[in-house]
Amino acid sequence: MLVPFLFEEFRRFIRAWSLNQILRYNLFMDISTWKIRLNELPLGEIYLFQELGSTNQTAETLIEEGAPPFSLVLADKQTAGKGRHGRSWQTNPGTSLAFSWILYPEPGIITPEKLGMLSGLGALGVAETLIEVYQLAAEIKWPNDVLVEGKKVCGVLVEVHWSGNLLKDAVLGIGINVSRGSVPVNKDLHFPASSLEEVCGREISRLELLIQVMSSLLKWYPELQSGDFTAAWQEKLAYKGETVTLFTGDKIIDQGTMQGVSPEGSLILDSDSGEVRTYQTGEIRLRPVDRS
Ligand code: BTN
User: Fold this and answer.
1) CB neighbours of 38 closer than 8 A, spacing ≥ 6?
2) Which residue, among 188, 195, 23, has the nearest Cα to 90 in the 3D structure?
3) pTM to 2 decimals?
4) CB neighbours of 242 closer than 8 A, spacing ≥ 6?
5) Residue 122 in contact with ligand 1 by CB distance below 6 A
6) Atom 9 (ligand 1): residue with closest C-alpha?
7) Ligand 1 centre distance from Cα of residue 11 (Å)
8) For each successive 10 residues of the chain (292 residues), what is the average pLDDT?
9) Residue 98 CB less than 6 A away from ligand 1
10) Whether the CB of 129 sits within 6 Å of ligand 1
11) Does ligand 1 lie within 6 Å of residue 84's CB atom?
């Protein structure tokens, strides 16, 4: 008696779960609602895709075709999403936010030494939203990962074109793990990861989240050179005052106490060698060290 009952309950659960997944997926297909809501923000063109290779890649093509400033490229699924350090970034349909924002910064604002500020902008926009709107204790793992409860929920990839030392255009690519299905299986992870729904314990509307993140990005973008921007980034830094190790590739290049972030977006490290050193983003990876 009990076995058929449990079997029927299990089937009911699976049916309800799949229906939920289908409904959630179809929500994104209501492209006109997304467009109407996003058009309320002072953005350029809005390009929405059910599926593409990488939103950063498509944004670059759109730049070549003359996309206006502040245009947004968003996809429900990426088949060739790009991560930092040449890694790939998985985006499963109905589970994540994957988008790229097209920027043409005023000449001189972003120099090669200050490129890290754009990554910081992306991380700050997401972290601030998670803290203020979703009441999560979000932190920024320098330069640009967003962590909640020590696990990564968002990554940022900035890609730019230079003409000499002058920045021609920038693509600010952001990937956010929203539901559980967005988190890659363990073997594909380089750092522990989670999703917002897992840490919030409730369902999150991807459209509302995107609107809030874009509002925060639009607020901070004109402030890149201000002390307020650095202070806001610094305030949310993970591992401040703690020991961290810096790597390029698999090679340890320094270890010391994390002091903070400079106005140019560089990491300030009180190195175990006795010197205070600054590091620009580039190829550097950071890991916390447990000295206890
Ligand atoms: C990282 O942490 O390695 C950065 C991940 C960045 C992923 C986003 S998803 C949207 C945009 N398009 C891409 O191909 N990558 C970025």
Assistant:
1) 46, 72, 210, 211, 214
2) 188
3) 0.88
4) 257, 258, 288, 289
5) no
6) 175
7) 36
8) 67 56 51 91 96 97 97 96 92 95 94 92 98 97 94 96 93 96 77 93 96 98 95 96 92 95 93 94 83 54
9) yes
10) no
11) yes
